[in-house]
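Entry 12.
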Amino acid sequence: MGKDKVKLDKDLLDKVKKFAAISGYTSVEEFISHCLEREIAKLEESDSEEEVKKKLKGLGYIS
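Predicted 3D structure (C-alpha cells):
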C-alpha cells in the first residue's frame, strides 16, 4: 500500500471509524480501500464514459 494521504472532515472520519469497527475491518484504511475498490469496480462495469458521468453525478461527485 502507498503512503498517500487523504483528508476527511471529522464527522465523516468518525462515521468511517464506527462502521469499519462494526463491519470487522482490521483498520480504517482497509475499510476505505474496500469501499473505493467496490465503487471503482461499479464504474469500470459501465459501458460508456457518459454512463460513468451519470453515475458520478448521481453520487454527487461531479455536477
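Annotation: Helices lie at 10-23, 28-44, 49-58. The chain has one domain: 10-58.
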